[in-house]
Amino acid sequence: MKLTTVKEIAKRAWSVLKWKAVFLTALILVLVMAPLRARGQFGLDPCCAIISAGLNTVSGLLKNVVAKPLSQIQQIEQQAASFEQQVIYPKDAIKNALGLAGQLQGQLRQINQLYRLPINSATLRTPQQLEQALLSHNPQMLDQVSQNYASVYGTVMAPADAPQPIRDLVDMTDAEAQAALKKAVELDALADVELAAADQINQQIQNAAPGSAPILEAQASAWLVRANAYTQSGMAELIRVRSIDLANSGAQLKFNATDVNTLRNNTSQALGRGSK
Amino acid sequence: MSNRFFRTRALTICLVFLLVLVPVTANAGVGDIFSLFTTITGTLRNGVGQVLSGIQSTNTTIRNFEQEVVWPVKVINQARAEVSQVRAQFTSLAGQIQSIPTNSATLVSPKQLEALLRSQQAGNLGRLGQSYEQVYQSLPQANQATTAQRNLMDVDDALALGALKTATASDQASQQMLIVADGLEQQAAVSAPGSASILAAQAQAANLQNQAMLQRMLAAELRQEAARLAHTNALRKQSADANRTLRNNLQQILSR
């Protein structure tokens, strides 16, 4: 009877407390099983030794794997910087080179002035006019060269005054002589332009840096190529002048031969008439 | 009974939700700590250490390449020494060759003219005309030659004298250009690879100027050659004129 009562009481109690017990058990399990925060002060925590060992490893790695190479890299960079500053781009050498540019510009300008000195010397009016046009350095005066040339050297003779081959030769010779004189005026003007370009490049060099100097050098080289081409065209004109001169000498021999032949024929005709 | 059951269940569910949803601090187990350190050390060894080692190796290679192959100090110094050596060996030799006198006139007037022509002094240009006239004579008077002949002589003289003056000025310019070249060479002997490009640019600019001077000389030569050609041609024309005059005169004589 008593047992039955106890069982019943237990049964009733279970039915009442069942969910609470389950809840409490679960709560305890959660509290026990759940991971706690790691703590590392005063070596009281069991995890502290592990953390300490881990941090020591990390610290060692930072020292050996990171800090050492970084230090060496820094050393290499310093050496490279020092090498560049002392051997490749020393400031003094750069400063001296730039200083020389200023010094040379003064000398080059003096040289330019030498070619500006007057060299004219004609005394008569007509030759003076021709000379003025020839030494003008002004391509716009080329038309005047032809006019003044005709005034000094004359024009092609009239058809009645010379045979056609002679007139052709004279005309061609005049044409080449005038072309050469005009080319001389052009060359003088081109030389002025080149000197102005050289002067400007020189000015730029005075403010250049080692990195920008090759650009200016390339520009000067390009101008030099251009100048060479102009010189070449001047040389071509010179060759033409001399060729025409040579051709004139050859033509003179041919004319002489023709004249001798004509004379011979005329003489034989005259002698033939006389014998008859 | 049923109500109590439902209340209990609701309470339980609420508790569970509360436990699940309430934010808690992050916690780590021993395994997690091991895992974390393994990751960090792995990253340091492989991710950072290897890359740094690679950078160090590359930097060393670049430094060695630059210092041993591109800009070896020994070779740079050697080049500087060679510049000085070449300068000492050839510059003075070239100067001596250029200074050998080439004059040979023996009479007073030609000697004076020759001295002026080879003086390399543009300051003498004013005296050149007078000396030229002493040797090559002045123009005949108007009653001594035709206008055409006088014009021809005058322009011949002018172009010849102009070319001689240009040559004298050019001689002085050449001397100054040699000073420029010498200055560049001297500077090259103490230059560095980084400053040499500035000197090279200057040399190219001077070279351009030199080319312009050559063109001036070429222009003078062209004028000379053209004048010679024109002179010969003018004589042909004058000869034709003379023939015509002779022909006319003969016709007049015969017609009488």
In short:
Chain A is built from seven helices and no strands. Chain A is mostly helical.
Largest sheet of chain A: none
Number of strands of chain A: 0
Shape of chain B from CA axes? elongated
Which residue ranges of chain A are poorly predicted, with pLDDT under 50 across at least 5 consecutive positions?
Answer: none
Task: List the main descriptive attributes of the protein structure presented here.
heterodimer; A: 276 residues; mainly alpha; 82% helix; B: mainly alpha; 7 helices
What does this structure look like?
The complex is a heterodimer of chains A (276) and B (256). Chain A has seven helices and no strands. With 276 residues, chain A is an all-alpha fold. In chain A, helix 3 packs antiparallel against helix 6 and helix 5 crosses helix 6. Chain B is mostly helical and 256 residues long. Chain B has a domain of 112 residues. Helix content of chain B is 84%, strand content 0%. Chain B is built from seven helices and no strands. The chains are: A mainly alpha (276), B mainly alpha (256). At the A-B interface, helix 1, helix 2, helix 3, helix 4 and helix 5 of A face helix 1, helix 2, helix 6 and helix 7 of B.
Blueprint (SSEs and pairs):
The complex is a heterodimer of chains A (276) and B (256).
Chain A: H1 2-33, H2 48-88, H3 91-114, H4 125-134, H5 142-153, H6 164-206, H7 213-275
Chain B: H1 2-21, H2 30-70, H3 73-98, H4 108-117, H5 125-136, H6 147-189, H7 193-255
Helix pairs in contact in B: 3-6, 4-5, 5-6, 6-7
